Amino acid sequence: MVKMKDVFKQIVKEVIAPTLKNHGFKKKGNNFARTFSEFSWTINVQSSSWNTSENLAFTINTGISVESLYGTYYQYVPPKFPLEVDSVMRIRISELKSITDQHEDSWYKLTPVTILDDLTEQIKQDVENIIIPHFQQFQSVQDVIQGLEKREAQGYHENPHVLAVLYHECGDREAAKERLRSVFAECGTDLERQETKELAKRLGFDITKS
User: Fold this and answer.
1) CA torsion, points 123, 125, 129, 132, in degrees to nearest 10?
2) DSSP character for 9?
3) Which of 134, 160, 164, 167 is the most buried (most CB within 10 A)?
């Protein structure tokens, strides 16, 4: 009997990987990245933890890894291969496909009755027509900033410190300082306040003064 995990591996290797390679992505396991000078487009193909030998579900997660967040914010050396899990603006394919704010989390399904040709064609179309156009919006760190601001306005919140660091790295020190002051004012614990003060200090700010 064919195991669904073997079919899944075949789809990643023979369908997803070649499609992404055509758009400049490199592969490491079930992770993919296309790297630019200051950031990378990142993808992870995630299989469900509830999979069985005969029923398997998987989805595609996207993100953007920004070089300047390392050292200043993360305080460690950036990985040689950027991963979606370490990225900002992490968005699942089901959200990218949704035309409403109330998107449903959907997964690709592999079962003994799955029509593979239909499934693989759907995956190719989703990569070509949804994932790649999504990434193509981001050609600079400034584009990433605007994307994060837009998602925040829509109610999707990343780590509150990220935008401050990106403002600073793009030369807008005043926006970075005001962002950290705002975050500091909204901190709910002493630990959060301490972390925000320490980040501000690394960026050269004293956010406790008026």
Assistant:
1) 40
2) H
3) 164
Identify the three-state secondary structure at position 136.
coil
* Phi/psi of residue 99, nearest 5 degrees: -105, 5
Please give the pLDDT value at position 99. 57
Tokens of 66: 């920004």
List, in sequence order, every residue forming a beta bridge with 193; answer none if it has no partner: none
Tokens of residue 165, six digits: 């660091």
CA angle in degrees (0–180, nearest 5) for 11-26-163: 110
Quick one: three-class SS letters along 172-208? Answer: CHHHHHHHHHHHHHHCCCHHHHHHHHHHHHHCCCCCC
Q: Pick from 66, 39, 75, 65: which is nearest to 202 by CA?
A: 75
Render pLDDT for 141-180 as a digit per residue (tens, 0 to 9).
999 999 999 999 988 888 899 999 999 999 999 999 999 9
- The pTM score is 0.92
φ, ψ at 89 (rounded to 5°): 50, 50
Q: Find where tokens 């070649």 sit.
A: 18
Instruction: Indicate the residue type of 73.
Output: Y
Contacts for 155 with CB less than 8 Å, ≥ 6 apart: none
Phi then psi for residue 97, to 5 deg, are -80, -20
The rounded distance, in Å, linking the Cα atoms of 59 and 104 is 13
CA 125 to CA 119: how far, in whole Å? 10
CA pair distance 178, 183, nearest whole angstrom? 9
Kind plus residue range of the DSSP H or E element containing 123: helix 116-126
